[in-house]
Amino acid sequence: MSIPESTHCSSIHCDRVTVAFGDQVAVSDVSLDVERGEILSLIGPSGCGKTTLLRSIAGLNSVTSGEVRITPAAIANEGQIGFVFQSPALLPWATTLQNVMLPLQLIGYGSGRTRREKALASLASVQLDHAADLRPDELSGGMQMRASIARALVTEPKVLLLDEPFAALDDMLRNDLGRLLLSLWQRQRFTAVMVTHNISESILLSTRIAVMRAGALESVLPNPVAWPRSPAQMRTQAFAEFLGVVSDHLRGRSEEQPERSVMSDGGGS
Ligand SMILES: Nc1ncnc2c1ncn2[C@@H]1O[C@H](COP(=O)(O)OP(=O)(O)OP(=O)(O)O)[C@@H](O)[C@H]1O
Protein backbone atom coordinates (compact mmCIF):
# COMPACT_ATOMS: atom_id res chain seq x y z
CA MET A 1 0.00 0.00 0.00
CA SER A 2 1.38 3.39 -0.92
CA ILE A 3 0.13 6.89 -0.30
CA PRO A 4 -2.60 7.54 -2.85
CA GLU A 5 -2.07 10.02 -5.61
CA SER A 6 -3.72 13.26 -4.73
CA THR A 7 -5.49 14.24 -7.90
CA HIS A 8 -9.07 13.54 -6.80
CA CYS A 9 -9.38 15.04 -3.36
CA SER A 10 -9.40 18.32 -1.49
CA SER A 11 -7.17 20.16 0.86
CA ILE A 12 -8.10 21.95 4.07
CA HIS A 13 -6.72 25.28 5.23
CA CYS A 14 -7.22 26.61 8.74
CA ASP A 15 -6.03 30.18 8.93
CA ARG A 16 -5.65 31.62 12.45
CA VAL A 17 -8.81 29.87 13.63
CA THR A 18 -10.12 30.84 17.05
CA VAL A 19 -13.32 29.37 18.51
CA ALA A 20 -14.74 30.70 21.76
CA PHE A 21 -17.83 29.61 23.63
CA GLY A 22 -18.61 32.71 25.69
CA ASP A 23 -15.47 33.33 27.75
CA GLN A 24 -14.15 29.83 27.06
CA VAL A 25 -11.58 29.82 24.25
CA ALA A 26 -11.63 26.25 22.92
CA VAL A 27 -9.37 26.80 19.90
CA SER A 28 -6.82 29.58 19.85
CA ASP A 29 -5.25 31.01 16.70
CA VAL A 30 -4.71 27.68 14.94
CA SER A 31 -3.20 27.70 11.45
CA LEU A 32 -3.01 24.29 9.84
CA ASP A 33 -2.95 23.05 6.26
CA VAL A 34 -4.04 19.50 5.51
CA GLU A 35 -2.69 18.48 2.16
CA ARG A 36 -4.64 16.65 -0.52
CA GLY A 37 -4.86 12.95 0.10
CA GLU A 38 -3.25 12.84 3.51
CA ILE A 39 -4.57 11.45 6.76
CA LEU A 40 -3.73 13.84 9.54
CA SER A 41 -4.26 12.83 13.15
CA LEU A 42 -5.19 15.44 15.74
CA ILE A 43 -4.08 14.45 19.20
CA GLY A 44 -3.83 16.18 22.56
CA PRO A 45 -5.07 16.05 26.13
CA SER A 46 -8.77 15.96 26.91
CA GLY A 47 -10.38 19.38 26.51
CA CYS A 48 -7.58 20.85 24.37
CA GLY A 49 -9.94 21.67 21.50
CA LYS A 50 -9.55 18.77 19.06
CA THR A 51 -13.25 18.12 18.51
CA THR A 52 -14.00 21.83 18.30
CA LEU A 53 -11.38 22.26 15.58
CA LEU A 54 -12.68 19.20 13.71
CA ARG A 55 -16.27 20.45 13.93
CA SER A 56 -15.11 23.85 12.67
CA ILE A 57 -13.54 22.17 9.64
CA ALA A 58 -16.84 20.34 9.07
CA GLY A 59 -18.76 23.61 9.33
CA LEU A 60 -20.63 22.29 12.38
CA ASN A 61 -19.12 25.03 14.60
CA SER A 62 -18.82 28.62 13.56
CA VAL A 63 -15.40 30.15 14.11
CA THR A 64 -15.04 33.27 16.23
CA SER A 65 -12.19 34.59 14.12
CA GLY A 66 -9.97 33.30 11.37
CA GLU A 67 -11.10 31.11 8.51
CA VAL A 68 -11.46 27.50 7.44
CA ARG A 69 -11.21 26.93 3.71
CA ILE A 70 -11.65 23.69 1.85
CA THR A 71 -10.46 23.65 -1.72
CA PRO A 72 -12.02 23.28 -4.16
CA ALA A 73 -14.67 25.41 -2.45
CA ALA A 74 -17.57 23.57 -4.08
CA ILE A 75 -16.78 20.55 -1.90
CA ALA A 76 -18.41 22.07 1.16
CA ASN A 77 -21.56 22.92 -0.80
CA GLU A 78 -21.93 19.54 -2.46
CA GLY A 79 -22.09 17.50 0.71
CA GLN A 80 -18.67 16.06 -0.04
CA ILE A 81 -17.57 16.07 3.59
CA GLY A 82 -18.12 12.83 5.52
CA PHE A 83 -18.13 12.79 9.33
CA VAL A 84 -17.66 9.73 11.53
CA PHE A 85 -18.56 10.32 15.18
CA GLN A 86 -17.26 8.44 18.21
CA SER A 87 -20.68 6.87 18.65
CA PRO A 88 -22.02 5.20 15.48
CA ALA A 89 -25.23 7.28 15.83
CA LEU A 90 -27.34 4.97 13.65
CA LEU A 91 -31.10 5.45 13.51
CA PRO A 92 -32.37 2.64 15.75
CA TRP A 93 -35.61 2.04 13.88
CA ALA A 94 -34.00 1.80 10.43
CA THR A 95 -32.13 -1.14 8.91
CA THR A 96 -28.40 -0.94 8.26
CA LEU A 97 -29.11 -0.42 4.57
CA GLN A 98 -31.62 2.37 5.25
CA ASN A 99 -29.11 4.06 7.56
CA VAL A 100 -26.46 4.00 4.86
CA MET A 101 -28.91 5.22 2.19
CA LEU A 102 -29.85 8.25 4.30
CA PRO A 103 -27.06 10.65 3.18
CA LEU A 104 -27.92 9.85 -0.45
CA GLN A 105 -31.54 10.73 0.21
CA LEU A 106 -30.49 13.95 1.93
CA ILE A 107 -28.49 15.11 -1.10
CA GLY A 108 -31.20 13.92 -3.51
CA TYR A 109 -28.93 11.40 -5.20
CA GLY A 110 -30.43 9.31 -8.00
CA SER A 111 -33.47 7.06 -7.83
CA GLY A 112 -34.43 4.76 -4.97
CA ARG A 113 -32.88 1.88 -6.87
CA THR A 114 -29.54 3.58 -7.51
CA ARG A 115 -29.41 4.75 -3.88
CA ARG A 116 -29.96 1.17 -2.77
CA GLU A 117 -27.24 -0.14 -5.09
CA LYS A 118 -24.77 2.50 -3.95
CA ALA A 119 -25.53 1.88 -0.27
CA LEU A 120 -25.10 -1.87 -0.77
CA ALA A 121 -21.74 -1.25 -2.45
CA SER A 122 -20.66 0.94 0.46
CA LEU A 123 -21.74 -1.78 2.91
CA ALA A 124 -19.78 -4.32 0.88
CA SER A 125 -16.67 -2.11 1.10
CA VAL A 126 -16.78 -2.50 4.89
CA GLN A 127 -17.73 -6.21 4.60
CA LEU A 128 -21.20 -5.62 5.96
CA ASP A 129 -23.46 -6.34 2.99
CA HIS A 130 -24.71 -9.50 4.71
CA ALA A 131 -26.14 -7.32 7.51
CA ALA A 132 -28.06 -4.93 5.25
CA ASP A 133 -31.47 -5.89 6.66
CA LEU A 134 -30.47 -5.95 10.32
CA ARG A 135 -31.27 -3.12 12.69
CA PRO A 136 -28.53 -1.41 14.77
CA ASP A 137 -29.41 -3.32 17.96
CA GLU A 138 -28.77 -6.55 16.05
CA LEU A 139 -25.20 -5.46 15.18
CA SER A 140 -22.07 -5.77 17.34
CA GLY A 141 -20.19 -2.59 18.29
CA GLY A 142 -17.64 -3.16 15.55
CA MET A 143 -20.37 -3.79 12.96
CA GLN A 144 -22.14 -0.59 14.02
CA MET A 145 -18.94 1.37 13.55
CA ARG A 146 -18.40 -0.22 10.13
CA ALA A 147 -21.97 0.78 9.22
CA SER A 148 -21.21 4.30 10.39
CA ILE A 149 -18.09 4.40 8.17
CA ALA A 150 -20.12 3.03 5.23
CA ARG A 151 -22.70 5.77 5.81
CA ALA A 152 -19.99 8.46 5.89
CA LEU A 153 -18.39 7.15 2.68
CA VAL A 154 -21.53 6.39 0.66
CA THR A 155 -21.54 9.82 -0.97
CA GLU A 156 -17.86 9.33 -1.89
CA PRO A 157 -16.76 12.38 0.10
CA LYS A 158 -13.56 14.12 -0.81
CA VAL A 159 -12.97 14.94 2.85
CA LEU A 160 -13.50 12.50 5.71
CA LEU A 161 -13.48 13.78 9.29
CA LEU A 162 -13.35 11.26 12.13
CA ASP A 163 -13.82 12.05 15.82
CA GLU A 164 -12.29 9.25 17.90
CA PRO A 165 -14.04 6.68 15.71
CA PHE A 166 -12.62 3.59 17.40
CA ALA A 167 -12.37 4.81 21.00
CA ALA A 168 -15.14 2.56 22.32
CA LEU A 169 -13.77 -0.63 20.73
CA ASP A 170 -11.34 -3.24 22.01
CA ASP A 171 -7.76 -3.35 20.69
CA MET A 172 -8.32 -6.09 18.11
CA LEU A 173 -11.34 -4.39 16.59
CA ARG A 174 -9.48 -1.11 16.68
CA ASN A 175 -6.66 -2.64 14.66
CA ASP A 176 -9.08 -4.26 12.20
CA LEU A 177 -11.01 -1.06 11.64
CA GLY A 178 -7.79 0.93 11.36
CA ARG A 179 -6.65 -1.40 8.58
CA LEU A 180 -10.06 -1.08 6.95
CA LEU A 181 -9.83 2.71 7.08
CA LEU A 182 -6.40 2.63 5.43
CA SER A 183 -7.62 0.35 2.64
CA LEU A 184 -10.66 2.58 2.00
CA TRP A 185 -8.39 5.63 1.98
CA GLN A 186 -6.13 3.89 -0.50
CA ARG A 187 -9.07 3.17 -2.80
CA GLN A 188 -11.12 6.33 -2.45
CA ARG A 189 -8.35 8.89 -2.02
CA PHE A 190 -10.15 11.18 0.39
CA THR A 191 -8.37 13.71 2.57
CA ALA A 192 -8.88 12.79 6.22
CA VAL A 193 -8.53 14.37 9.62
CA MET A 194 -8.92 12.03 12.59
CA VAL A 195 -9.13 12.96 16.25
CA THR A 196 -7.70 10.27 18.51
CA HIS A 197 -6.31 9.88 22.03
CA ASN A 198 -4.28 6.87 21.02
CA ILE A 199 -0.71 7.72 20.00
CA SER A 200 -0.02 4.30 18.44
CA GLU A 201 -3.19 4.54 16.38
CA SER A 202 -2.25 8.04 15.21
CA ILE A 203 1.16 6.76 14.10
CA LEU A 204 -0.23 3.69 12.35
CA LEU A 205 -2.94 5.53 10.47
CA SER A 206 -1.64 8.94 9.58
CA THR A 207 0.78 10.76 7.35
CA ARG A 208 1.25 13.56 9.90
CA ILE A 209 0.32 14.16 13.51
CA ALA A 210 -0.90 17.53 14.78
CA VAL A 211 -0.45 17.93 18.52
CA MET A 212 -2.75 20.37 20.33
CA ARG A 213 -2.42 21.69 23.86
CA ALA A 214 -4.74 24.10 25.64
CA GLY A 215 -6.50 25.16 22.45
CA ALA A 216 -3.31 25.88 20.52
CA LEU A 217 -1.43 23.90 17.92
CA GLU A 218 1.76 22.72 19.61
CA SER A 219 3.38 21.06 16.59
CA VAL A 220 2.75 19.20 13.35
CA LEU A 221 4.94 16.13 13.02
CA PRO A 222 5.61 14.32 9.73
CA ASN A 223 5.26 10.60 10.36
CA PRO A 224 8.52 8.83 9.46
CA VAL A 225 7.14 5.28 9.82
CA ALA A 226 7.38 3.49 6.48
CA TRP A 227 4.48 2.38 4.29
CA PRO A 228 2.72 0.01 4.03
CA ARG A 229 1.55 0.23 7.62
CA SER A 230 0.69 -2.80 9.72
CA PRO A 231 0.34 -3.48 13.47
CA ALA A 232 3.63 -5.45 13.27
CA GLN A 233 5.38 -2.09 12.82
CA MET A 234 4.49 -1.21 16.38
CA ARG A 235 7.37 -3.46 17.41
CA THR A 236 9.95 -1.65 15.27
CA GLN A 237 12.52 0.79 16.55
CA ALA A 238 11.34 3.53 14.16
CA PHE A 239 7.84 3.26 15.60
CA ALA A 240 9.06 3.31 19.22
CA GLU A 241 11.28 6.31 18.57
CA PHE A 242 8.51 8.30 16.92
CA LEU A 243 6.13 7.35 19.71
CA GLY A 244 8.63 8.90 22.12
CA VAL A 245 8.80 12.07 20.01
CA VAL A 246 5.00 12.39 19.91
CA SER A 247 4.75 11.75 23.67
CA ASP A 248 7.30 14.49 24.33
CA HIS A 249 5.35 16.93 22.19
CA LEU A 250 2.17 15.99 24.05
CA ARG A 251 3.87 16.76 27.33
CA GLY A 252 5.37 19.97 25.98
CA ARG A 253 8.92 18.69 26.40
CA SER A 254 9.91 18.86 22.77
CA GLU A 255 12.71 20.68 21.06
CA GLU A 256 11.19 22.71 18.23
CA GLN A 257 11.42 20.62 15.06
CA PRO A 258 11.02 22.12 11.61
CA GLU A 259 8.14 20.62 9.69
CA ARG A 260 8.98 18.82 6.49
CA SER A 261 6.89 17.90 3.48
CA VAL A 262 4.56 15.01 4.26
CA MET A 263 4.74 13.48 0.82
CA SER A 264 8.52 13.34 0.81
CA ASP A 265 8.97 12.37 4.46
CA GLY A 266 5.85 10.63 5.65
CA GLY A 267 5.18 8.72 2.49
CA GLY A 268 6.93 6.47 0.07
CA SER A 269 5.60 3.11 -0.91
N1 LIG B 1 -20.66 23.74 22.70
C1 LIG B 1 -19.81 24.10 23.68
N2 LIG B 1 -20.17 25.03 24.58
C2 LIG B 1 -19.31 25.43 25.54
N3 LIG B 1 -18.08 24.94 25.70
C3 LIG B 1 -17.67 24.00 24.84
C4 LIG B 1 -18.51 23.53 23.78
N4 LIG B 1 -17.83 22.59 23.06
C5 LIG B 1 -16.64 22.48 23.66
N5 LIG B 1 -16.53 23.32 24.72
C6 LIG B 1 -15.37 23.49 25.58
O1 LIG B 1 -14.26 23.72 24.74
C7 LIG B 1 -13.11 23.06 25.24
C8 LIG B 1 -12.56 22.11 24.17
O2 LIG B 1 -13.49 21.04 24.00
P1 LIG B 1 -13.27 19.92 22.90
O3 LIG B 1 -14.42 18.99 22.99
O4 LIG B 1 -12.99 20.55 21.60
O5 LIG B 1 -11.94 19.23 23.44
P2 LIG B 1 -11.29 17.84 23.04
O6 LIG B 1 -9.83 18.07 22.95
O7 LIG B 1 -11.98 17.27 21.85
O8 LIG B 1 -11.65 16.97 24.32
P3 LIG B 1 -11.83 15.37 24.46
O9 LIG B 1 -10.53 14.76 24.05
O10 LIG B 1 -12.09 15.20 25.93
O11 LIG B 1 -12.98 14.97 23.60
C9 LIG B 1 -13.55 22.34 26.51
O12 LIG B 1 -13.20 23.14 27.61
C10 LIG B 1 -15.05 22.24 26.36
O13 LIG B 1 -15.67 22.27 27.62
TrEMBL record:
- MF terms per GO, please? ATP binding
The UniProt record lists the ABC transporter domain at 12-239
Has UniProt tagged this entry with the keyword Hydrolase? no
UniProt entry keywords in alphabetical sequence:
ATP-binding, Nucleotide-binding, Transport
InterPro entries reported in the protein's UniProt record: AAA+_ATPase, ABC_transporter-like_ATP-bd, ABC_transporter-like_CS, ABC_transporter_ATP-bind, P-loop_NTPase
Q: Does the keyword Transport apply?
A: yes
Report the CDD domains cross-referenced here.
Answer: ABC_NrtD_SsuB_transporters (cd03293)
Could you tell me what this protein is called?
A: ABC transporter ATP-binding protein
